[in-house]
Amino acid sequence: MAIQEARQYGGRHGAGEHPTACAGCAHCGETGHRRAVAAFLARREELAAGHGVPAAVAHSPVAARQWVSDELAQSARAVTAHGREAGLAWLARVRTGSLAAVWAAVLALLLGQALTALGTGWTAARTAGLCTALLLAVPLTAAAHAHRARGGLLAALTGEDNRLSTTRAVAAAWLVFLCYALLFLTFRSLTATAFGLSGAAGLVTVLALVSAVTVTARLVVSTRIAALRLQKVRADRPRAADLLCDDNGRADLADVQYVLVSGAVLVFAAVRLATDPARLPALPWSLALLVAVSAVWHLAAKCTEGGRPAVHAVVRAREAGDLDAPIRTGDDIEIRGIGFVPPGAAAPDPLTRLVVRIGPVHAHVPLVPVPGGFANPTDTVLTVPLPADVEPGRVEVSVVTAAGFETNRVTIDVSD
To answer: What digits encode the pLDDT tens for the residues 274-295?
Structure first.
């Protein structure tokens, strides 16, 4: 399985690959990242099987473990560096793709109107729709150019943790739709005798609601981070799955229902506008209430997610056959608790930033590879050797996570 995983990331040298690396090239950046990931996976599996350890350190389990951890940490940093280069190239490609999507939508609207006009003829409503699309495409293109270094239009939907924000995406979709509807009716008013705004209360209410949810969610997240109640680790780049998943990449029910409900109501409003282009779509209050319930659910999930990391106990790690004994310098200690690996920090590079404070000494948690992953560290258990610089006596132990949060301190007794 590990070999297949390495081949998947590494790929093969084919006709499409460039013979030399090109600066800023998306293809070369992604190829370099895939190769770095494949090399890391292969190295991890090799070390997990006990191969590749130098004979100079193989005789000492502690030295061998530290050498393996340092070797994997160096390889993980190489993966991160290549991933950063691939991310920059990916953002440039996304900027181009977003612009192409905007103008492709305008072209699709033109073609759709031309095909539907074969039987009924070209109408003023079709002209108004095309002019509105063009008028919206121009500022969107300018905004994408202004934020070209951050992915163009994707910049407005990306949060401070470099992930796509569900609340921002929903609010942006409603804002674009309402701007289109208002501009469309404005163009229609140049040829029509009148147009209706009386049924727009529900539509405006939903826009105000999703906008308030966006601001509130950002405030909740920033407040919980400042209060050390929520750990956030920056992602390497935004992904479409961020709209429906949590920071660990698992589907989040609160996000899924918010996107589905808001999207369904938005489609309903768009169909209403298409069938009756003389007025803003009248959104029933029952649908507005449905969006409100969905938004409350989403905000409640934001207020309760995460938690502060905590150390519950510190004990001496005991190997099979060892006698029970107090903690002494050079022994391995096992730290039990929760929240040591924050969501989104399970990648190798964030794991290397996990530190245990033992008195005045900061000990980095060694990476212990096993086939398919790591046995140490985990979210609930860490194992570190007690450094020789720790003096006998009562010593405080705490954990500093990759998000920069420090846990509570637990006192242990170190014997001579």
So the answer is: 888 878 888 899 999 999 999 9
Q: Are 273 and 181 in contact (CB under 8 A)?
A: yes
Concatenate the DSSP letters of all residues of 242-296 into one string. Answer: GGTB-TTS-B-HHHHHHHHHHHHHHHHHHHHHHH-TTB-----HHHHHHHHHHHH
Check: CB of residue 161 under 8 Å from CB of residue 235: yes
Task: Find tokens 């107090």 and name the residue.
Answer: 326
Contacts of 140 (CB under 8 A, 6+ apart): 102, 153
- Relative to beta strand 373-376, strand 368-370 is antiparallel
Residue found under tokens 């709209």: 243
| CB neighbours of residue 330 within 10 Å | 11
Q: 196 pairs with which residues across the strands? A: 279
Report which residue type is found at 389.
Answer: D
pLDDT reading at 2 higher than 50: no
Going by C-beta distance under 8 Å and a sequence separation of 6 or more, which residues neighbour residue 43?
A: 52, 71, 72, 75
Cα gap 88→399, rounded to integer Å: 33
Do you know the residue count of the chain? 416
Tell me, what's the pLDDT at 377?
A: 92
Q: Which of 185-194, 213-222, 314-323, 334-343 has the lowest mean pLDDT?
A: 185-194
Amino acid letter for position 273: L
Report CA Rg, the chain.
28
pLDDT in tens, 126-160: 888 888 889 999 988 888 888 877 888 888 899 88
Q: Using CA atoms, how far apart are residues 308 and 354, in angstroms rounded to an integer?
A: 15
| Burial profile 336-372: b = 16 or more Cβ within 10 angstroms, e = fewer | ebebbbbbbbbbbbbbbbbbbbbbeeebebbbbbeee
* Secondary structure (3-state) at 344: coil
Structure tokens at 219: 């405030």
- In the block, tokens 């005798």 appear at 193
DSSP H or E stretch at residue 413: strand 410-415
Task: Please tell me the number of Cα atoms within 13 Å of 376 on its side-chain side.
Answer: 21
Return the structure tokens found at 128: 């108004």
Residues 238, 249: contact at Cβ < 8 Å?
Answer: no
Both structure tokens of 143: 């905004």
CB 141, CB 233: distance < 8 Å: no
What angle, rounded to 10 degrees, do the helices at 253-275 and 201-226 form?
A: 160
